[in-house]
Amino acid sequence: MKKRGQTQQFDKASFKASVKKHLVTTYAQNIETASDKHWYLAVGKALAEISTGNLLETEKRVANAQTRSVNYFSLEFLIGRLTGNNLISLGLYEQISDAVTELGFQLTDLLEQERDPALGNGGLGRLAACFMDSLAAQEFPSVGYGLHYQYGLFQQSFLNGHQIEFPDAWREAEGYPWEVQRSELNQFVGLYGDVSFYTDDEGQQHRRWNPAVTLQGIAWDLPIIGYQNQSVFPLRLWECRAPVPFNLAKFNDGDYVGAQQTQIAAGNVTKILYPNDNHDQGKVLRLTQQYFHCACSIADIICRHLKNGHEINSLSKFEAIQLNDTHPTIAIPELMRVLLDDHQLSWDDAWAIVSKTFAYTNHTLLPEALETWSEALIGELLPRHLEIIFEINHRLMAQVEAKWPGNNEIKRKLSIIAEGQSRMVRMANLCVASTYAVNGVAALHSELVKRDLFPEFDELFPGRLQNVTNGITPRRWLKYCNPQLSALISEKIGTEWPAHLEQLEAIAQFATDTQFQQRFAEIKKQNKQRFADWVADNLDIELDTNAIFDVQIKRLHEYKRQHLNLLHILSLYHRLLNDPTFDMHPRVFIFAAKAAPGYALAKDIIYAINKVADKVNNDPRLNGKLKVVFVPDYRVSLAEIIIPAADVSEQISTAGKEASGTGNMKLALNGALTIGTMDGANVEIREEVGDDNIFIFGLLVDDVEKLKAEGYNPHTYYEQDSLLKASIDLLDNNEFDATDCAAFSNIRHNLLEGGDPYLVLADFADYVNAHNRIDAEYHNQTQWVKKTILNTALVGKFSSDRSIRDYVNNIWHLTALPQ
Ligand code: CBF
């Protein structure tokens, strides 16, 4: 094993031979005629030989180290393409690029062949991917546990401006070159059935779950390659299959469908990623997915623990489990069940382990995203787990009674079971009651978790509620996606910054250096050109790179307020056409966003933006001052092109609604200036970059609450602000769509008659002012470039390496692997 900081040993000749071997033997291609795609697959396979070897080696080192590991449980890992990023982590980018050139190809072309593994919806899943990268980079023993969805997040395209969705078969027919099946780790999982008593040889009574259905969990490992340290940790994804996939007797009787029924049913469990971001759907299949994920993962952890020679009682000493949101909460009663029923521990002993093993991250305050499951459904699918949940609740209620005697109001609030017509299990309450640490994901969000969501829990369990501000991996989100800026930074401050992002502060000294400013600005221009070329090639829209590139890329959601951005665009359109005194620097508004397929208003907003884009991009009266681009099928690999090209980053959620945001961090790191509300991590970005280098606007959290309490009336704003009125009226006069203007009037209706739940109208005037400041300040290019340099320099705090160290020091208590 080599020392940290050294790169993987590499022999070009044998690498090339391995690529050719895979091309022929794995993919059955002729070297002379194979397509780029097959070459990419073969390169991936040849590289995976290195990473799989290192994965097994790292597993041994973890076992020998006898230290605690973290198990990151998440229903989503939005990892993005692995090949390019893995080359950076292996430290082999240049060597492989040379080798591929000698084989007759451009590495960048081959990398474009990889389909994004879109195994997540948005921020939560991408955060999990950044965290895995940072755990590996710092060599903290870790396993990511997720699901091996057959179809990832749907592919989006636009048909006459409307979103349409297609299944995303991310693995393609040939399979994904980076994954390896670990059949020795496969698990069995029960479902349904009943619970019975039995008496053991010593006369002790026990509970036993007799599942009616059994599923098989197939383990697939993806390598998480530590940045230039040769450690590789697994992202373990479970695929669901039937233990007996095929009924030959039925087939022989001519019942061809019946013969495969169990396999079809099992396959459905991991068929598809639910496409909802920040929204709970309450479907049986989703609970089955959650349980399947948790049961396989808990079983795997216990197998590893016992295999490493430890007693079951010492589980929490060696294993921490982080629940990424409430989605894997059912792991809590599952571990209790295993300890009570399979290992026959007493309740107190089992609880002592469970409550020292689990920690929970809350990612949202939105009520529609706080998961609840019907008691009846849990009882049917997981009867033993429901009993255990009742017992946890019973004991919780006893603690509440002891603290607030006779206070039924608090009991009702904290109870894991919500009373009502149909009783519901509140997963967040179960998490807070059963874990030793609960964290929010940005300072403001964590304060609101304490103040608004769980104030009584905070009193009952002092110190349990904490904050860990989110972060992003600098490897993917600067070094890989912005190679020219990375090279410039390395030239000035050395090459250590990707592993120590706080070092970027040293480039602040060059913020006023004319030569540095020119080079920084030139790189931004080239990145804008790269994106403009992509847009020209793929969307047939010409963009002028002298324009301000103003970017809003994130899931489509009312609270994120893409419609506020749209109203501002309409206001510019109105002013350009009606106010001869008005002028502005040319601006390109760039959107990318997927809407959940069932979210009608979100889809209307996409449609409206597309229609406005059609009109303004082709209206000669606007003199090219205003362009709008809605990039279809937003995904990690597109973010990698858009983010380095951004001048302005739109982070405009209603205050109190965006838990953190991480796109805000990526854009600032790449030198975009934020226009944002005092929400989520914007607050901390402002603290870091300083008031002069960010455009803050809008109501604060307390203002929002006050305004709502006073009885917010959007009509007042509409009547009093003529620019707002003109912009909203543009939604209702067929200006952009003569055939189908329902989407426009739905948006207008939501904002006026619908009460404008996210206070778009209340923030409009201040938002327009902030944009006017941007326009004015962009004219002074020297000042502008200085601000962009300072953004890059001063956001080192938002490295996910720092987030992981916060988790390690304050929650997980891990030690890095020894060399
Ligand atoms: O913490 C990561 C991200 O999670 C969300 O995307 C989520 O799904 N709850 C939040 O909406 C983001 O604010 C947050 O950055």
UniProtKB/TrEMBL annotation:
<keyword id="KW-0663">Pyridoxal phosphate</keyword>
<comment type="similarity">
    <text>Belongs to the glycogen phosphorylase family.</text>
</comment>
<keyword id="KW-0328">Glycosyltransferase</keyword>
<protein>
    <recommendedName>
        <fullName>Alpha-1,4 glucan phosphorylase</fullName>
        <ecNumber>2.4.1.1</ecNumber>
    </recommendedName>
</protein>
<comment type="function">
    <text>Allosteric enzyme that catalyzes the rate-limiting step in glycogen catabolism, the phosphorolytic cleavage of glycogen to produce glucose-1-phosphate, and plays a central role in maintaining cellular and organismal glucose homeostasis.</text>
</comment>
<dbReference type="Pfam" id="PF00343">
    <property type="entry name" value="Phosphorylase"/>
</dbReference>
<dbReference type="InterPro" id="IPR000811">
    <property type="entry name" value="Glyco_trans_35"/>
</dbReference>
<comment type="function">
    <text>Phosphorylase is an important allosteric enzyme in carbohydrate metabolism. Enzymes from different sources differ in their regulatory mechanisms and in their natural substrates. However, all known phosphorylases share catalytic and structural properties.</text>
</comment>
<dbReference type="InterPro" id="IPR011833">
    <property type="entry name" value="Glycg_phsphrylas"/>
</dbReference>
<dbReference type="InterPro" id="IPR035090">
    <property type="entry name" value="Pyridoxal_P_attach_site"/>
</dbReference>
<keyword id="KW-0119">Carbohydrate metabolism</keyword>
<keyword id="KW-0808">Transferase</keyword>
